[in-house]
Amino acid sequence: MAVTDTPPPGARNATPPAGAARPSGQEGGAPGSEQKLWIERIPAGWWALAIVLLFMPAVANNFWLFQVFGWTFILGMIALSLMFLAGYGGMVSLIQMSVAAMGGYMVAILGPSGVETISLGLPWWLNIPLAILIAAVFATLVGALAVRTEGIYTIMITLAIASAFFYFTRQNYGIFNGYTGFNLVVPPMLFGVDWRQPVAFYYLSLGLAVLCYAAVVYVSRTPFGLALQGVRDNPRRMAALGFNVTAHRIAAYTFAGAIAAIGGILLVWQNSQIAPGTAGLPAVFDILVIAVVGGLRRPSGAFIGALIYVLLRTFSPDVLTAFELSNERFKLLIGLGFLVVVFFSPDGMLGLYDRWKANRGRRDPLTGKERE
């Protein structure tokens, strides 16, 4: 439910005027379309994508399943948390990778790892929920500071906290084991399955990515999500209507922090270790690049941007080697790709797709010329 102070009388029964724009994230349709089952409203393209992803292990090798797609789903979840804040809440945060690292560190500290002098060795059904909870609380505290500012000031506050978190984990040996970090952090054996094997990890990361995506879509259409979008568009008007603007923004940080924590735990399980570099400033900016390249307007943009980033990050060293250039310059290719996408479409790849679709709709299918 939306967090309000004192809603005005009759607010619950109020209906928007005819022709009023719907908040982003709320699907429109013809009269009677609400009577359709939710499964009938899923486009055919999504069903095709689901079939491809489900049967991917039948055609892809372990490298693609574990390294490419597994990493894509993980980074996509972390970028999805940023998309929720920026796209639905209008708050660009650079703390999401730090929140993800906090979740990963907590799994290593609370559960078993190779550093037995620090790790507590709690069972999975206790250390995983606690790790997500602690990371969400961390995000909430950051949000309580950041939401009292706007624009560039919010970015700078979250960047400063992300930088401080990196140096704290690097210099603290009693809790975070300093520069070395933790190793041998692996997923628990459940149902007799080793979830770090390529096929099992692929389905694990895919399933959690789908759940996080569905959670963001669902929350964006709840009263809380619609109110958050109203706060994004006109916070003064929402405050005048009785909504607690600050509470909505902080709650958005909490929800986004839980999603980022899930991605951070998977990232630790994939690498079997975590170190301060996981939350370093390059990783912090990479999440922003992923979200912007994919598109901040819709949740699918986070995963599109993650796939593009992972492909560039994985195969750009081979391209550079072919041209007898240093592998250290792979960031140059990523940066150039980012500039090209943003130059042609500030809305990322989703913006390019929308423009292509709009231009295609204006052309006559027989002549190929634009309709008047």
Automatic annotation (TrEMBL):
Gene Ontology terms, MF aspect: branched-chain amino acid transmembrane transporter activity
Entry-linked Pfam families: BPD_transp_2
The protein's name: Branched-chain amino acid ABC transporter permease
Subcellular location field: Cell membrane
Annotated stretches, region: Disordered: 1-32
Topology with respect to the bilayer: Multi-pass membrane protein
Biased amino acid composition, Pro residues: 1-10
Organism: Szabonella alba
Keyword Thylakoid: no
Keywords from the named record: Cell membrane, Membrane, Transmembrane, Transmembrane helix
GO cellular component: plasma membrane
Segments crossing the lipid bilayer: 44-63, 69-87, 94-112, 124-145, 152-169, 175-193, 200-219, 250-269, 281-312, 332-353
Chief localization: membrane
Lineage summary: Bacteria, Pseudomonadati, Pseudomonadota, Alphaproteobacteria, Rhodobacterales
Key word Cell membrane present: yes
PANTHER family hit by this protein: ABC TRANSPORTER ATP-BINDING PROTEIN, HIGH-AFFINITY BRANCHED-CHAIN AMINO ACID TRANSPORT SYSTEM PERMEASE
